[in-house]
Amino acid sequence: MKRVRVPLSYPASDDFDGASGSLPGWQLCRGISGSFRVEWVAGFVWNQWQPWSGIRTLKVNGGRLGIMPFELSTVFDDTVEIPKGVALDLHGSTVDFQIDGAIRAFDIKTKSKIYNGTVTVNGTTASGGGDKHAPVSGGDQSTGTGISKAKVYDLTVNTNRSNGNGVVLFGDSVGCEIYNITIPDSPTIGRCVALEWGGSEPGPTGHPHNCKIYNINAGALSFGAGAGSNAYVAWLSSAFNITVENIYADSCYGVLGVFTGDRSNDGAPARYKNMIGRGITADNITCEDVKKYGVRCYGKGSDSSNLLPQSVVVTNPVLRADGTITDAIGVLCEFTDDVQIVNPDISGFQTGVATGQEAKNLKVIGGKVW
Question: What is the mean pLDDT of the chain?
Fold first, then answer.
């Protein structure tokens, strides 16, 4: 593991938000390749950064980083970890992960940030969980350990993994925000933004909560025709107290999915066991060409006998279908309790609003379903 630690002897950029003066930071270092670690970074010297080939893993301890725009994409072939408290400003550049196997791309930690650029994954032989080959991921699905107060924003993301994720946080992730995310036309992406529980029997399991997802803008998403694909622009699995706002897709198989998760709340910590599935609000869920589900809420885990009804308030959904897809549904509720659809504008579906098994107290308030 190579270590780079050099004095910053140039002025920081105008928008550098740390202290100025002679601080540790980046200078031009020619010929460095392979894995390396940067310690106590305050900021990059903006006119000294150049793309390096052969970089495998970037680990940064503290501070704020910036990458100048490149004429060509910066290419990584392994995980880039953004540890606790580090903010990574891509400065409009494109980072392309050309990875193979069960590998993460950007791996964010508690109180870290990544923003202002494009992150793509062009991988091969993808395997492993939903974090693998996702442009940005955080938390540990296997243990249920989450991250807190992380932010992912002002990014364009895409992956070539079939049924892959764009931005995904796992486990007991709390107080995180994902916003201003753009997803271009894609035949492969399964979930653009996802919050997913984690852990294993007998527990404890970790469940995302007190998070916000907003301003997600997707193009034409053509993955999701197969049964059980669970393809949605925004996906929540075994979460609670989640705010979702301004979700849009030109075309997709599902816009918003709210699910209990495979094991329901069987292994959830006692402090919030009975809160899972509650406090979820979604405002301005929009798609002009829905192929399957506009909004689907489902409250039964596949590996649990414990029903956990989801309670969701959906306000101002604008959902359209072309009238030719026999199983397209505007809003579908199964194993739910007290779902509210407020001021809907839903049209072109074979069924506008539908209930399945054990859907209770569904309310449609105002609006039109036609």
Answer: 83
